[in-house]
Amino acid sequence: MTERKREWIDWVKALLIAFGIAFIVRTFFFAPIVVDGPSMMPTLHDGDQMIVNKFIYDIQEPERFDIVVFHASDKKDFIKRVIGLPGEHVAVKDDNLYIDGDKRKEPFLQERKEDMHSYQTLTGDFQLEDLPGGYETIPDGYVLVLGDNRNNSTDSRMLGLVSMDRVVGQTSFIYWPLDRMRIIHD
What we know:
Its EC number is 3.4.21.89. It is found in: Cell membrane; Membrane. It is an enzyme of class 3 (hydrolase). The chain crosses the membrane at residues 12-35. It is a single-pass type II membrane protein. With 186 residues, the chain is α+β, with helices and mostly antiparallel strands. The protein has a single domain (3-183), classed as Umud Fragment, subunit A, CATH 2.10.109. It has 4 helices and 12 strands. The protein has helices at residues 3-28, 56-59, 110-114, 156-159, and strands spanning 30-34, 49-53, 67-71, 77-84, 90-93, 96-99, 102-104, 126-127, 142-146, 162-163, 167-176, 182-183. Strands 1, 2, 3, 4, 9, 10, 11 and 12 form an 8-stranded antiparallel beta sheet that branches. Strand 3 and strand 4 (77-84) form a beta hairpin. The model has no long low-confidence stretch (mean pLDDT 87).
């Protein structure tokens, strides 16, 4: 075998290994996603490109206020924020979140609430029993999700609780556009 042919075969092997590693990483560990719509404004903007950590929930449970990607249908994935966890009762009254009767702060909504007029509400009143399924507490293996743009979001208030089997993973890193590149914290 000539030196040139051996070099060509080495390049082909290297490319196949690189594509194989990329396929494994994308399939099992990380994937890109593009935000589609205004439901997570102002935290996420339409067109933001993010990385989804697909394995995080294999090693830990979701936490309140994680931003997750889930299969809303066979053809559509949604990005929303985890508000309620298994075993909890969730209610919103007068734009305040209550978990098991205790008022909780939602710091990511503060700026939006400050911009609103006194007669406006960001989140209409509801309690867990009002949502599809009529649960009194969130069952094991499910989470309640809401968009940050509460008055313009299709979320658990319409879709019901989200099964962890439908959750693709957690996302917290915007990589495009460059001027919005950042890691999102609560």
